[in-house]
Amino acid sequence: MHALKNSLLELITETSTNLPPDVRAAVQQGKSKEDAGTRSALALSTITHNITMAEENVSPICQDTGMPTFHVHVPVGVNQLEITRQIKAAIVEATKTGKLRPNSVDSLTGANSGDNLGEGVPVIHYEQWERDEVDIRLILKGGGCENKNIQYSLPCELEGLGRAGRDLDGIRKCILHSVYQAQGQGCSAGFIGVGVGGDRTTGYELAKKQLFRKVFDTNPNADLADLEDYIMEHANELSIGTMGFGGNTTLLGCKVGAMHRIPASFYVSVAYNCWAFRRQGVTLNPETGEITGWLYKDQPEIKIQEPIEKETTTSTQGTREIVLTPPISEEAIRNLKVGDVVTINGRIHTGRDALHKYLMDHESPVNLDGGVIYHCGPVMLKDEDDKWEVKAAGPTTSIREEPYQADIIKKFGIRAVIGKGGMGAKTLAGLKEHGAVYLNAIGGAAQYYADCITGVDGVDFMEFGVPEAMWHLNVKKFTAIVTMDSHGNSLHRDVESTSLERLAKFKDPVFS
């Protein structure tokens, strides 16, 4: 199979940089349902722009290229060991060329392998079949949406919905609750795969397997088809919206599969996937490894009516636009309120889990007084002059930094934190006490934000690995929305409260 590595490298590149047509159609369909000029319309406009940029630049749609997960069907007699070797070789090559971010971290030492290989990475599932072709499918599912996966054990009590029993209606309640609990932290609007039955492990495997179905297919099981249609209609009535900004589009796809279980266990497992639904597949010649076909390239026949709106990537109706240049004064921050659109010109600093933990007990290598911290783990490569170049740089989910953020704001005088999905009560109190704001960038829009970065001033803590290092970046026209201000207001808290009230409307049984 002399062509296998190159075929796999092409598959990885396409998956990372080019959303398939069915996913694009779902995003466009969601965009058409939003009201013109709203925060969600702004987010979806940025998302569609980012999708085009990623394809044109042949660069990652989202900087978090996740845990590479392959599902492989092979004819009897094909050497699976050789396929595994070539998958790993292609993964290493794709990492070197910036199509994948180095994401493989030793769970005990915290060391990043640097090449996306390690114990259990990548994930490869094999199945034999009687067809005379190799079928390889890949999904790149980032950590932000992976962290919003959830598993229910029926019967159970669900917030807003009451008791969920061991029946189809209990399954319905679990799926609705899974969408509610994700809020904007999983980069909504998203897709969900649901596995009903099995055990703890196989339930999640079945849920993720549903994500390999096409967005607009019809479930062959009539009961599950009705359930999928119900969820698609009513989950969007929760009004969580894109990025959790509120709005009409929260869910872009729902696929449900079921398997047998043992009498004592009844699991409903939900795999949440962000809008950047990166999955592709190919068929290969089993003798040569050459690609004979693509599995998700056909264009779905979906009628989409574009909304009548003024296209914009910088403003929404009825909002203020404020330009800030670090270092930022407390007075400038106190003047901001939830809903304001902020554009930053100047120097910002990336910081994720490892840096926040470090800064709790150590000093910063740079002056952060009046500065901006960006929750981001970029994809970085060196150019021919040995200078760092940003290949992808969207925000990561901020809630992971909740234990640290307020203390670090106080300790270093930080005035703005950029991320996605919002933060909790402790951070909100810290913003109010110390005069800072939280700015929500558009999750997954890694090319859009990379284009705002004009240069790399330097980097500290490379020993943490590329995603966790502290990168010092110069930005121009870097735009985000104030969703938590210095006066105790939080859009995320308000949307969660409203969506919980709407969730309670679905408490009564629907399916007998």
TrEMBL record:
Keywords (A to Z) from UniProt: 4Fe-4S, Iron, Iron-sulfur, Lyase, Metal-binding
Any Pfam family matching the protein: Fumerase
BP term (GO), one: generation of precursor metabolites and energy
Catalytic activity: (S)-malate = fumarate + H2O
Protein name, per record: Fumarate hydratase class I
Subunit text: Homodimer.
Class in the EC hierarchy, top level: lyase
PANTHER family noted in UniProt: L(+)-TARTRATE DEHYDRATASE SUBUNIT BETA, L(+)-TARTRATE DEHYDRATASE SUBUNIT BETA-RELATED
Taxonomic source organism: Marininema mesophilum
Domain Fe-S hydro-lyase tartrate dehydratase beta-type catalytic: 295-494
Presence of keyword Iron: yes
Family: Belongs to the class-I fumarase family.
InterPro entries found in the cross-reference section: Fe-S_hydro-lyase_TtdA-typ_cat (IPR004646), Fe-S_hydro-lyase_TtdB-typ_cat (IPR004647), Fe-S_hydroAse_TtdB_cat_sf (IPR036660), Fe_dep_fumarate_hydratase (IPR011167)
Domain Fe-S hydro-lyase tartrate dehydratase alpha-type catalytic: residue ranges: 8-282
GO molecular function: 4 iron, 4 sulfur cluster binding; fumarate hydratase activity; metal ion binding
EC number: 4.2.1.2
Function: Catalyzes the reversible hydration of fumarate to (S)-malate.
Co-factor(s): [4Fe-4S] cluster
